[in-house]
Design a protein that fits this description.
There is one protein chain. The chain is an all-alpha fold and 266 residues long. The protein has one domain: MFS general substrate transporter like domains (Growth Hormone, Chain: A), CATH 1.20.1250. It is built from ten helices and no strands. Helix 8 packs antiparallel against helix 9. It is globular and about 55 Å long.
């Protein structure tokens, strides 16, 4: 279910990235009209969910366990999971927001730059789907976390170069790493907890702090570009984020549960 959810989310994001500029230009709608198209999809989503307000399905009360109350905010493991999720989301938001502009400055026209962003998200779909399966079968997830962090790190190292000869390779590596990392981050929310109550608490912490952290990424990335009038420093910062994500992922990937801090010291 985690794989299916993230694949659906990533697929439509990839479609929007690719057709946004063509819709604005070829249909003569402009960027405002292109945004309206995506707003209409949001309206469609609201209409789809309205019947759920009036559908009542009897649910069995969940079985609460003694260890359901977890001090996640004092848990080192919980913070490692949170940082892994936040840093991978930060990298993804930075890439979605700024990759087309970086590529445009390298000489690509806006439509081609948008399709490159779409390519990045499409190539990540298989990794997005298979990662929860691999993570669930592994004895621990340290190797998977290392792999998902190294791929975007290498991709951003490639973007440091000024040429476009290997551009598709760097974009593909970014897509594979960022696609796999979001599924792994969501899967860790259940793998690092012993029951649904703990998973809900860890999910609330990881997504609250993680997305607040991630939301600052595109703003800081653009601010560094404005200060330096170049992409070198912002890309180096992205490489540092990938390295920090690697460190957090190694900790979050160890086989343990967010039960209490004493358990984590073993």
């Amino acid at each position: 279910m985690t794989g299916a959810y993230t694949v659906a989310m990533s697929t439509w994001a990839a479609v929007a990235s690719g057709v946004g500029v063509p819709v604005a230009q070829q249909l003569s709608l402009g960027w405002r009209g292109s945004l309206v198209c995506w707003a209409l999809l949001a309206v469609l989503a609201i209409v789809t969910w309205i019947p759920q307000l009036y559908t009542r399905r009897p649910l069995a009360p969940p079985q609460r366990m003694e260890s359901s109350t977890v001090a996640v905010w004092r848990s080192r493991l919980a913070w490692q999971v949170t940082l892994f999720m936040g840093l991978q989301s930060m990298l993804f938001y930075i890439t979605v927001a700024w990759l087309p502009t970086i590529l445009s400055d390298r000489g690509l026209d806006p439509a081609s730059a948008g399709w490159m962003l779409s390519l990045m998200q499409f190539v990540g779909l298989p990794a997005t789907f298979i990662m929860p399966v691999l993570a669930g079968r592994a004895s621990n997830q340290r190797f998977l976390a290392t792999l998902t962090a190294m791929l975007p790190l290498i991709g951003y190292l490639g973007l440091l170069g000024a040429g476009t000869q290997w551009l598709i390779l760097w974009v593909v590596l970014l897509g594979l790493g960022l696609g796999a990392s979001i599924s792994l981050a969501l899967t860790l929310l259940t793998l690092r907890t012993a029951n649904a109550d703990q998973a809900a608490q860890l999910s609330g912490m990881a997504q609250c702090v993680g997305y607040l952290l991630a939301a600052a990424g595109p703003i800081l990335f653009g601010y560094m570009h404005d200060l330096t009038s170049a992409w070198t420093i912002p890309i180096l910062a992205s490489i540092a984020i990938a390295a920090a994500m690697l460190i957090a992922g190694i900790g979050a990937g160890r086989k343990s549960y967010v039960i209490n801090t004493e358990n984590e010291k073993r």
